[in-house]
Design a protein that fits this description.
The complex is a heterodimer. By secondary structure, chain A is an all-alpha fold. Chain A contains 9 helices and no strands. Chain A is flat. Chain B starts with a strand and ends with a helix. The chains are: A mainly alpha, B alpha/beta.
């Protein structure tokens, strides 16, 4: 039987840290737990509660992005803008974390029974097929969006295998190959938003990031191929 | 708004020491309510929003309704307690299902249709569905149909 409770407890433990706001691990770990529970639901063949967990992950996403960006050196004006954005994002997140919906979600998750392993095993091929489809789309279209979809499908498959205590070495290697692209992609997206709001961005800094992204994309394609693809 | 009030399907009795929240649907409850879902589909019913109580039997009933959903499902504590303004204020959508428990579904139905909380006049069987139309406020809705679970066998 696969019991969802360990990750539910993880979520419960990190929600107060996320609300308190001083430790970035609070939001990060709450999102990790919510994502792992979404995969558990898929292995259990349940769709109800998936939207609630997705809502939580999405709602905390902006805070997480900004905390990641601020964890590495940024140009001074951009960093100050990011700090302001982070304050706003935290202010928007707080009511959500304290909402009746979040409380009901935790209550509902607490009542879920464990899922029998053979049932969960039978649903694993679906996640593998999804990754294959996304990888084929990325190969055809070669866009950042398609690559992002591959990363998500890869992460879901890894979590599913971890619920089932299968080996995930091959998937971790593929995730590493794609990881840098995601970070650079959203750094550039926030830089763009900063510029749209009148922020001054040094062209050299932007060019450097764009160059890094191109190299990361090439690295991702090579790494994906070297790891055997999917 | 088209509002479908749904009482959860047949659930198992509580085991000794088991929390009421954790009572699951029985295989019979799943099968019978599956037929109700197919009947609703034949009647052309679809939802853009499903709200459900956090008790397992309501979560599992909402799960059986998911093929009829094109939109978002949302768990709410307000369906695991007597009906309140807080519940009505959170409702969004044009065709909405609420999955909850007795006596509160009957009370909610009476409240929406008559403005009074005469729940005993609108008793829901397990897996029963009421179809209302209008504004989701006390006395603001009309009762269009009261579908007993047996309709699933007949359609």
């Amino acid at each position: 039987m696969i019991d969802p409770r360990p990750w539910l407890e993880h979520l419960r433990r990190h929600l107060p840290i996320a609300r308190e706001g001083s430790d970035p691990e609070g939001v990060h770990q709450a999102r990790v737990a919510a994502r792992r529970l979404r995969v558990w639901l898929e292995l259990a063949g349940m769709r109800a509660l998936d939207h609630d967990l997705a809502w939580l992950v999405r709602g905390a996403g902006r805070v997480r992005d900004l905390e990641v960006l601020l964890s590495s050196p940024q140009p001074k004006a951009f960093a100050a803008w990011l700090e302001r954005e982070l304050q706003e994002a935290r202010a928007a997140l707080l009511p959500m974390l304290g909402s009746p919906r979040t409380a009901a979600l935790l209550r509902a998750l607490s009542a879920l029974p464990p899922v029998p392993i053979p049932e969960a095993e039978a649903r694993l091929p679906r996640l593998e097929r999804r990754l294959r489809r996304k990888a084929a789309l990325w190969a055809r279209e070669d866009t950042l969006e398609a690559l992002h979809a591959v990363r998500k499908a890869l992460r879901r498959l890894r979590y599913a295998r971890e619920w089932l205590e299968h080996d995930t070495g091959d998937l971790k290697q593929l995730q590493d190959a794609l990881g840098r692209v995601g970070d650079l992609g959203f750094t550039l997206a926030y830089l763009e938003r900063f510029a749209q709001q009148g922020g001054k961005v040094s062209p050299a800094h932007r060019r450097r990031l764009e160059g890094d992204l191109q190299r990361a994309l090439e690295g991702a394609r090579e790494g994906w191929g070297e790891a055997g693809g999917w | 708004m088209n509002l479908f009030l749904v009482r959860h399907a047949i659930a198992a009795d509580a085991l000794p020491g088991q929390d009421d929240d954790a009572r699951p649907l029985t295989p019979e409850g799943i099968e019978r309510f599956g037929r109700m879902v197919r009947a609703l589909e034949k009647l052309g019913v679809g939802f853009d929003r499903i709200y459900f109580s956090p008790k397992l039997r309501a979560v599992q009933t909402a799960d059986l309704l998911m093929p009829l959903l094109e939109g978002e499902a949302e768990v709410t504590p307000y369906l695991a307690e007597p009906p309140s303004s807080a519940l009505l204020e959170q409702l969004r959508g044009e065709s909405v299902a609420l999955v909850g428990h007795e006596p509160w579904m009957g009370e909610l139905c009476a409240w929406l249709v008559t403005g009074e909380r005469w729940g005993e006049h609108f008793p829901f069987k397990k897996g029963g569905v009421a179809h209302l139309e209008g504004r989701p406020e006390p006395g603001g809705m009309r009762l269009l149909a009261f579908l007993p679970p047996a309709i699933g066998r007949k359609l």
